[in-house]
Design brief:
Number of domains: 2
Strand content: 25-35%
CATH topology of the largest domain: Translation Initiation Factor IF3
Number of strands: 10
Radius of gyration: 16 Å
Structural class: alpha+beta
Distance between the termini: 36 Å
CATH architecture of the largest domain: 2-Layer Sandwich
Largest sheet: 4 strands, mixed
Length: about 160
């Protein structure tokens, strides 16, 4: 495929550094070999939770914003960042305003509190951008909900 560029970075609402959250916060078991995480044995790496980190931390990775990528033809944004979806969306505000993509995201009720936010913040964010929200599915006894955000027609 000629239209894919991979970046070895995290995404967040501003440029910073992030690292894997402690094992006690993770939803899934995090296997270790000595003091190092054994990524080869993680059954669902997409279920891992991350947190802000200091640049000097040996286990940190640089986080970018979607806006910093200067994309000009975005039709779909799909985010599933274990409770951090709104932070990533905040870093995409200019791109969303300019490109008006369809957005699919997940609300993780139990993990969202780690970022001191509530679902009302999603509602406000999308209302300000003139988007409609639709619940697609709720899973795991209401713990996870998938949403579709679509731009309202511009008048």
């Amino acid at each position: 495929m000629n239209n894919i560029t991979a970046f070895n970075n995290a995404l967040y609402e501003y440029e910073c550094f992030m690292r894997l959250s402690p094992a006690t916060i993770q939803e899934i078991p995090v296997p270790f070999v000595g003091s190092m995480i054994d990524y080869d044995r993680i059954k669902n790496a997409a279920a891992l939770t991350f947190e802000l980190a200091d640049k000097s931390s040996v286990d940190s990775i640089r986080a970018l914003t979607i806006d910093s990528l200067n994309l000009d033809d975005v039709g779909l944004i799909k985010i599933d960042t274990q409770g951090n979806d709104l932070s990533v969306l905040k870093g995409a505000r200019e791109t969303i305003s300019r490109c008006r993509p369809v957005i699919v995201f997940e609300y993780e009720k139990e993990l969202f509190h780690l970022h001191a936010e509530s679902f009302a913040y999603f509602e406000k964010y999308f209302e300000d951008l003139h988007y409609d929200l639709k619940l697609l599915a709720t899973q795991v006894e209401g713990k996870q909900s998938d949403y579709l955000a679509t731009p309202r027609p511009q008048i």
